[in-house]
Amino acid sequence: MARELFPLLFLHHIRDIKDPEHPYSLEELKVVTEDSVEVDDKRSHVRITFTPTVEHCSMATVIGLCLRVKLLRSLPSHYKVDIRVAPGTHATEAAVNKQLNDKERVAAALENPNLVDMVDECLANLIGKVIKDVTSLRRNVGVNRFHNYYDTDDLESVTTNKDPFITGGQGRKMSKT
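^ thats the sequence. predicted structure below, dont judge the formating
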C-alpha cells in the first residue's frame, strides 16, 4: 500500500505550484495534469512533461525551473529528474528542454536571487495546501494506512510543517512493506 500512496502524494504536491504570471495553479491552467507525471520508483526516475499555456510562453523556463526545484527539494538525491515541454506546444521547445535539463544552467539560474524569489513565490502556496491534503488523506485512507507510509514520529512533523517531503529535507519516508 505504501508504494501506491507515494504517487498520490506526489501528484497532489506538484500540481499546486502557482503559475508565475497568473494567480492559478499549474493544474488549474492545465499546464500539468496527472498524465504528465511519470514516476518509476524502481529506477529512481521522475519525468514531468508540461504544456505551456501559449506557444510563445515567456515563462516556460521558469515553470520548468519551479517543477525541478520542487522535485529537488522533495525527492531523495538519487532520483533522476527530467522536465520536458510537451512536444509541439512551445515555439522554442528544444531550447527550453535543453536549458531545463542541463545541470550547469539550472545551477546558474538558481544563483540569481530574483529568479529564486520568483520560484519561491510559485512554491509558497504549497505548504498550506499540503497540510490540508495530508489531513484529508489521513481522514480518507485511514490513520493505519497513513502510518504505513509515515513513521509514527513523522506524523508530528507533518502537522508542524517539518515533514521532509513538504519542506525539502531528505525526501519521503517509506515503510519497508
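The beta strands are 37-40, 45-50, 80-85.
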